[in-house]
Amino acid sequence: MAKIIDFPNVDKLKEEVKSLRKELVSLIFSHDDRISHEAIRVEAEYQEEFGLREYKAMNLNLTVKKLKEEKRLVEDFIRRDEPVDFYYISKKVYSVFTKNEELLRNKLTVIGSLDKYERSRQVLIC
What we know:
Mean pLDDT: 84
Structural class: mainly alpha
Strand content: under 5%
Low-confidence stretches: none
Number of strands: 0
Distance between the termini: 70 Å
Radius of gyration: 31 Å
Order of helices and strands: HHH
Largest sheet: none
């Protein structure tokens, strides 16, 4: 039968492997944490640079679309030779563009939250 040979200091080596494993896990988590913070910082810089411009463009586009829809509805009333019902028109336009307004609010919320994050991060760094 073959004889099994024990390595010297097996328990010490096991403890070293455990401590190295813990250190490796810690380093991996800190690396991932740095990457995620860097990604948030880059997104915040993008939103600061282009997000507000994009929001303004979306807002102007929505305003133009609303005005065109209001104009079309007013022309429909005029074509039928009826008094213009502005309450109906505003309600109809609001119902048509509710989804777009929600997108605008979400965009502004993202810009604001990333701006707050970036400012709080700058305070912590200083």
